[in-house]
Amino acid sequence: MNGYELVIGTPSVDDFLRLRKVSGLSEKTRQAAERGLPNTWFAVTIRHDGQAVGMGRIIGDGGTAFQITDMAVEPAHQGKGLGKQIMAALVAQIHAEAPATAYISLVADGDAQHLYAKFGFEPVMPRSIGMAMWLKPKA
User: Fold this and answer.
1) Strand pairing partners for 51?
2) 91-125 pLDDT, tens digit each
3) 4-117 belongs to which homologous superfamily?
4) How far apart are alpha carbons 9 and 31 in whole angstroms?
């Protein structure tokens, strides 16, 4: 990958927090990351010169439901196919380990839907509609 290395494993808390911020994803607290990251089902990190520049995770129960989340690539490294490399690794793991009846979902922000469509993801509307709830940060 031309100076890039795909590493299987959950990103560190610091890398996770930084990559979410610089890639434009919603920020998470350190406490949330420390609590959530150990529950990752599968993850990959892309490293360049030893520094994490991209990541993607799969969360879920390991049997019935999986969600691809935290897809992030540092802006300076976007447009180089790293998102495709991350998705390919995540989808390969799902095909290798998830039961055939599992439900695999993700939320596609903006043009990311075009990348995800290349891996077999399709809109679920009108049969289903994605919904979310945000909690207010505690003061």
Assistant:
1) 48
2) 999 999 999 999 999 999 888 899 999 999 999 88
3) Gcn5-related N-acetyltransferase (GNAT) (3.40.630.30)
4) 20
